[in-house]
Amino acid sequence: MLVDALKLNEMIATLTTEVANLSAVIKSNDNAIRQMMEAMGTRLTRKEILERLRISDAGLRLWIKQGKFPAADVDNKWLLSEVIEWERKGIKRRAT
Fold first, then answer.
1. Within a 10 A sphere around the Cβ of 43, how many other Cβ atoms?
2. Are 59 and 20 in a shared domain?
């Protein structure tokens, strides 16, 4: 029984170390993702897109479904530079 308790303590110590290591990896990945997102530029939320385009949420969903507006990235946000490019192209189309 004492041997079982010692083995259990060793297993707990090993698992504690593994959890700490995994936590460090997750934190590192989180920081890398955050830095990458910052490097990519300003990102807009759905609310900001709706306000900018003066459109309803249903209208935005329809535009995305129809391919008239780009879908959000994995973080459910849009890159401002891409939205500006979309606006520029849309203004050109309306002007011609």
1. 19
2. no
pLDDT in tens, 72-91: 998 899 999 889 989 988 86
Number of domains the chain is built from: 2
Judgement on whether residues 54 and 26 belong to the same structural domain of the protein: no
Read off the pTM.
0.55
> Contact 44/52 with Cβ under 8 angstroms?
yes
Query: What's the burial of 52, exposed, middle or buried (CB within 10 Å: 0-12/13-18/19+)?
Result: middle
pLDDT in tens, 22-79: 888 888 877 777 677 666 788 999 999 999 999 999 999 999 999 999 999 988 999 9
List the one residue out of 63, 54, 88, 35 whose CA is nearest residue 72: 63
Q: CB count, 10 Å around CB of 69?
A: 20
53 lies in which domain range? 43-95
59 and 86 together in one domain: yes
